[in-house]
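User: Need the bound-state model for zinc ion:
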Amino acid sequence: MIKQIWFGIVVIILMQSCVRDKLIQYPESMPYVYDVLIDAGHGGDDSGAQSQSVLEKDLMLSLSQKLKKALEHEGYRVYCTRSNDESIKLNERIAKMDSIEARLFISLHTNFSKDGNDNGINLYIRNQQQSGPAAEAIQKELTQASLMHFNKIEETSHFKILNTPFPSVMLNLGYLSNESDLFILRNEEQQTVLAQNISKAVKSYFQLHN
Ligand SMILES: [Zn+2]
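Assistant: Bound-state model below.
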């Protein structure tokens, strides 16, 4: 009988500690833990690419908010390096990122070319082993969605911001200098579709690789 009581007490203590572990989502040693870290390129004085009155910084801010919403709808925790039209220097962006633990970093940009025929999506990574699977998941989803042409995944050490301890990609979404890309990028509904496609890709990446 005494044995049974002790057994009961041990079970209750174990159950309580399990419940407690479930409730605590953020260990004290790591106060900021996110699934996805979104970086809307440029901001403030830095407009990025420009086509007439359309500015890369505004489009990417708008897209980043839509992507955040789509990912949060799927239950992911999302952090953005900026959520308004503020100027953030590269070293400030990197410092912000260094204070955060994430499973994936996505930097959002768009392109511009003197040749109006240049179009489509280019995706950059710094390290194939670390970021290749995420890049390929995004390539697969955006190719299937065929909203814009998917050009390539390129491994390059050119972008310092991609030097993260977790997988990171830079998406250059279309060309402001191309008429059909510009139409998609500045259209709110098309932006939402694009954000949903990226969110879908993130979901399938996490399902396969975490
Ligand atoms: Zn840019």
